Structure formats: C-alpha cells, structure tokens
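S1.2 Input.
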Amino acid sequence: MNQVPDGLLKGILALHPLPGMESELFFGKWKRWTYQRDVHFLREGQIADYIWFIERGSARIYYKKDDREITEWLALEGQFFLSINSFFTRTPSRLMIHTLESTVLWGIHHNDFMRMADEYHEIEKLLRKMVTGSLILSQQRMESIQFETALQRYQKLLQASPGIIQRVPMQYIASFLGITKETLSRIRGMH
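S1.3 Output.
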C-alpha cells in the first residue's frame, strides 16, 4: 500500500471504514503530487479525473463569469475536493483549480474509484458517502449565501478555518463569501 498520509486515512475512516483487503486496494490507487504556488491542475474545459485530498497547502476552486473570477471553494489541509459535475458526468469542467501555496495533493483517479466501487460494496458505500457529503456542503453554502449576513458568513469561515486570513488573499475570501473586498475590509475592521 502507498504511504498515504494520516490525514487521508483519518478522512476516509471518518466517512466509512474499509475492511483490510478493500482498504489496501483503495489506498494503493492514491497518487501524490507536489505543486508550487499558483499552479493550475484543472483548467476550464478539461475533464476532472481526480478526487483530491490536501495533505499540505491550499487550493482555490473557481470559475469565470463576465470577466470576473468567482471563488466557489477554498480547500485547506485535510479536505477532499473535486469538480463534482465533471468528475461524475465525464464532461469538460467549467471550474478551475489552482494552488494558493506550495501544496502536496493526493488524488484517486475516476476510473480506479468507479471500478473498485463496482466490485466492492464497502468502497461503493464510501463513494456514496463522499457524494452525499459534497452535496450537503454545496447546499449549506447556497443557504449560507441566501440566508446569512456577510458578517455571519465571515465568522463561520473563521471558526471553520482560523488561519485562513493569513493564507488566502482577501479578494478570494471576499469572492468565496459572496461580498466585495470593501465589505470584507469593513467586517475585518470591526474585529
């Protein structure tokens, strides 16, 4: 089995523990990449082949709309992320993903994951729980933008990721929160 990081093992275990043989097969398919800061590892129009896990560093998932970049997600250590639509439908992604810092990523390829999910019931259960978790996060994000104030969204972000302000440029945080940089500056000035 690959020497996958403890964080990845714990992340999978928290979702759904895999029995011995299935665990060995599953973790044996994960690959490791090291990227410098500001490297795009998924570009618009590419098919998203991997579910990613960040061992160290950070990444931004975004799209372009009317010549603006809209941050959809900020991924930090210990998090899984992907372009869900592209990964599952095998169509070109509208999203782009790039590193915000020097980053160590682990990824499992779509074909490997699907093949094992077809063959092993426990891996299929894990996949279902990953998809369900992603859908829940997506809905929570939409509800947050619809029903919470900018201040509430900012406070929630700081609670979930206390060091994010020192690591992620303000324009990306503002975009992720669905506010302007000026509004973010005012909110930060209140703290």
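S1.4 Remarks. The chain has a mean pLDDT of 94.
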